[in-house]
């Protein structure tokens, strides 16, 4: 493997780092054109278009969209049929995700001013949410739990899940996870046509208020294009991990942590920062040796050769500065006093504290959500959570005295803006 090596003290480091981080979506004109056609067809023709695309792209033989709905009994059957170990693992992960989500719930609040005017904020859940889950060979029951449970905790009234089943291939753990998470309805459709069905609604599939969950480039493009008609969680890029290590962690551990994200796909990014050059050498040796054991060796090799890096930094403070610029999806602090060092981190999707906290634990069962901002968007966005399924409404209730006093202020400002009706509306209530 030819993994890149950088030194943060080099004069061209910032330029080289920017090149390394650059990633452009492969959502080219052909993808946009295809997705636009699908969206228009589903919006105009509903079920018939969804069925046609599902037959064409996934090889399904169903004669109606209604036939593509998985009844609740089928989800329960999947839950009962998976192995005891799988069922217990899903249950344990779900319990931890649910417990963490309970801490995120926003509560309504209000206060009353001296003149009796009431101000506040009322919290309410979304009515209906659509959950996109990858299916077929690339099936992720963990995504079902991570996307559905916060919505249920938030109080969303109805959760509609779509999951592709190419050639009729169904993943039993995905269905079992839907049962555990409390998904209301499941349709075995995928691709841009599934996103369109959720956004616009069809004769069989109800329109939702927000669409969450990962998918391929067609799904991501469709989500981007229906935003505004519905809300979306984010348009995610390739997975990322950034590890900061002081040189005192087993280099095999660090190499495998880097692999854990590099194995997702060839565009994934795995970067290690350390002030110890000799430790970087040891990690590189571990990478070369352990790579031979990996079933997804070719993907890891290409990912780390093209987008990975081992970077020598001056010290841990320098490492934090570099990390804050990168704003990674996953940040491992494999150092002593990780909790203290974390206080200096401003931009990261999730922060993993200490040598024993593998990023993979966060992917499955630690509790916090694994749907995280990528491509430096952690500078301005946050992990998926209960708050993404809740809305805030402002509460304003003026007393007679408050209306008189505030009316004077509003009148002055409204007339200054040339909005006379605004001003007179407020003035009518001035005694």
Structure description:
- The chain is α/β, with parallel strands linked by helices and 431 residues long.
- It has three domains: 29-232, 3-Layer(aba) Sandwich (Rossmann fold); 237-374, Nitrogenase molybdenum iron protein domain (Rossmann fold), CATH 3.40.50.1980; 401-427.
- It has 17 helices and 15 strands.
- The strands form three sheets. Strands 1-12-11-10-13-14 form a six-stranded parallel beta sheet, sandwiched between helices. Strands 2-7-6-5-8-9 form a six-stranded mixed beta sheet, with helices on both faces. A three-stranded antiparallel beta sheet has the order 3-4-15, with no helix packed on it.
- Helix 7 (172-181) links the parallel strand 6 (158-162) and strand 7.
- Helix 4 packs across helix 7 and helix 10 (251-262) crosses helix 11 (277-291).
- The chain is globular.
Strand order of the largest sheet: 1-12-11-10-13-14
CATH superfamily of the largest domain: Nitrogenase molybdenum iron protein domain
State the CATH topology of the largest domain: Rossmann fold
* Span of the ends, CA to CA: 80 Å
- Low-pLDDT ranges: none
Query: How many H/I helices?
Result: 17
């Amino acid at each position: 493997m030819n993994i890149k090596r950088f030194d943060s003290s080099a004069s061209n480091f910032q330029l080289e780092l920017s090149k390394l981080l650059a990633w452009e979506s492969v959502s080219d004109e052909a993808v946009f054109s295809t997705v636009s056609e699908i969206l228009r067809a589903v919006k105009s023709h509903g079920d018939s278009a969804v069925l046609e695309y599902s037959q064409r792209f996934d090889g399904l033989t169903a004669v109606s969209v209604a036939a593509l709905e998985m009844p609740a009994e089928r989800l329960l059957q999947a839950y009962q049929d998976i192995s005891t170990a799988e069922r217990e693992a899903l249950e344990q992960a779900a319990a931890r995700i649910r417990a963490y989500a309970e801490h995120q719930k926003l509560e309504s609040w209000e206060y009353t001013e001296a003149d009796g005017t009431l101000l506040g904020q009322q919290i309410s859940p979304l009515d209906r949410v659509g959950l996109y889950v990858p299916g077929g060979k690339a099936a992720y029951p963990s995504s079902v739990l991570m996307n559905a449970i916060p919505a249920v905790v938030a109080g969303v009234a109805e959760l509609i899940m779509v999951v592709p089943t190419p050639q009729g291939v169904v993943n039993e753990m995905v269905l079992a996870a839907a049962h555990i998470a409390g998904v209301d309805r499941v349709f075995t459709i995928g691709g841009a046509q599934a996103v369109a069905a959720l956004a616009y609604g069809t004769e069989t599939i109800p329109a939702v208020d927000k669409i969450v969950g990962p998918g391929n480039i067609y799904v991501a493009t469709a989500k981007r294009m229906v935003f505004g008609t519905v809300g979306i969680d984010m348009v995610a890029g390739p997975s990322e991990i950034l590890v900061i290590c002081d040189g005192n962690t087993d280099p095999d551990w660090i190499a495998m942590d880097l692999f854990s994200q590099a194995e997702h796909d060839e565009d994934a990014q795995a970067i290690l920062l350390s002030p110890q050059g000799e430790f970087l050498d040891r990690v590189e040796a571990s990478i070369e040796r352990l790579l031979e054991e990996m079933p997804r060796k070719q993907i890891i090799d290409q990912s780390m050769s093209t987008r990975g890096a081992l970077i020598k930094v001056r010290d841990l403070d320098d490492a934090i500065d570099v990390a804050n610029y990168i704003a990674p999806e996953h940040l491992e602090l494999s150092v002593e006093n990780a909790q203290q060092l974390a206080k200096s981190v401003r931009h990261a999707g999730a922060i993993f504290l200490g040598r024993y906290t593998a990023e993979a634990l966060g992917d499955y069962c630690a509790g916090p959500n694994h749907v995280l901002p990528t491509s430096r968007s952690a500078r301005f966005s946050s992990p998926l959570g209960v708050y993404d399924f809740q809305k805030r409404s402002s509460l304003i209730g003026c007393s007679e005295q408050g209306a008189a006093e505030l009316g004077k202020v509003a009148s002055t400002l409204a007339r200054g803006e040339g909005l006379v009706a605004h001003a007179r509306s407020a003035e009518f209530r001035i005694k």
